[in-house]
Amino acid sequence: MIPIRCFTCGKVISRGYEEYKRRRTEGEDPEQILDDLGMDRYCCRRMLLTHKEIIDEINPYQ
Amino acid sequence: MKLEFKDLLIDQTRFILSDSSPAFANSLRRAMTSEVLTFAIEDVRVYDNSSALFDEMLAHRLGLIPIVTEYAGYTPRDVCSCDGAGCSQCSVTFTMSVEGPRMVASGDLISQDPVIKPVSDDIPIVKLESGQKVVIEARAILNAGNEHVKWQPTTICGYKNYPVIRIDDNCDGCGHCVEACPKGILAVVDGTVCVKDGMDTECSLCRLCEQACLNSGIGEKPAIHIDMDPKRFLFTMESCGSLPPATIIKEGLQFLKNQSDNLLETLEDL
Predict the structure, then answer these.
(1) Contact across the interface for B124 and A41, Cβ inside 8 Å
(2) Which of B8, B94, B121, B159 might form a disulfide with B233, Cβ 3.0–4.6 angstroms?
(3) Contact B120 A12 (CB under 8 A)
(4) Which residues does B262 contact at the CB level (< 8 Å), separation at least 6?
(5) What CATH superfamily is the domain B2-33+155-236?
(6) Which part of chain B is CATH 2.170.120.12?
(7) Alpha helix positions (H), chain B
(8) Where in chain B do CATH 3.30.1360.10 domains reside?
């Protein structure tokens, strides 16, 4: 799961992840999406950019 | 001492603190980040959790959700008359019961007090597949950021000295400093360099312009000087949503005032 807050500054970043994921699969430029989501600082931007979602891979083994 | 707001938005603010000292500016910053009380989930009772996340992980994620804070009627748990047992004076109970398949979000937390609720309803907590279930009861209490960051009302909170940009008469308007400035706050007007209107606060005191001026061969000393005003501070503060920025400043100042009053009382008792 995407962390609730940015590790560095503490801004709540998880709210934008669903939108980020959807627009990213549509092939949009991450820069534009992050700007639209109001992620100004690079600490918050890397949270979304570098996140690897693994919950769907773990879920079958519950 | 003077406070002048450059902008005051719903979740962030920039203000100038003038006629002050570095010690006071830092005290104010520290008070705002770590001494202002907010609500955050502290205790979680897990009745059922068949999701992919462990109970501890779930509790950790719940704790980090910012909660709208209203002080009226609430006291911190350690000074409450219930002696830390947890009563309606010092804690707010949230309940959540969700069955998959769907995403559990902060909006699924049902609060006993309609005012004290998560700042937004769309913070994801855990993704459930069909057959998975999460049933919990959580208790939020008032505390300060020096105990745990989840009680910190600010995200970024910092200040810098107010920049003072001086341009000498021997400036030949070569424009090297204009190109060097990473913030783009300088311009050449009528053969001399000047600061663009209202842009002086953007200066990051990097002094690249001074270096560029020297490199242009003006002589021993640059024609542009960047200094900082030791008595003025430019604060930038962003709230996580639990309290409005103005309240955070007010509560921070109130904390400093109470601290100094306490010190005075102690000194008088000696």
Answers:
(1) no
(2) B159
(3) yes
(4) none
(5) RNA polymerase, RBP11-like subunit (3.30.1360.10)
(6) 37-152
(7) 22-34, 55-63, 176-180, 208-215, 245-269
(8) 2-33+155-236
Question: What is the pTM for the complete model shown?
Answer: 0.88
Q: Which of B119, B104, B109 is nearest to B53 (CA)?
A: B104
The angle, 0 to 180 degrees and rounded to 10, between the axes of the packed helices B245-269 and B22-34 is: 110
Q: Does the CB of A4 have a partner CB in chain B at under 8 Å?
A: yes
* Residue-wise pLDDT tens digits, B138-169: 999 999 999 999 999 999 999 999 999 998 88
Q: Does A25 touch chain B (CB under 8 A)?
A: no
Give A10→chain B minimum CA distance, Å.
5
Architecture (CATH level 2) of domain B37-152: Beta Complex (2.170)
CATH fold of the domain at A1-52? Arc Repressor Mutant, subunit A (1.10.10)
Nearest to B61 among A4, A18, A56 (CB): A4
- Neighbour tally for B258: CB within 10 Å: 11
Measured between beta carbons, the chain A residues lying within 8 angstroms of B53 are 1
Instruction: Report pLDDT digits (tens) over B161-198.
Output: 999 999 888 888 888 899 999 998 999 888 888 898 88
What is the residue extent of each domain of chain A? Answer: 1-52
ipTM, 2 decimals?
A: 0.91
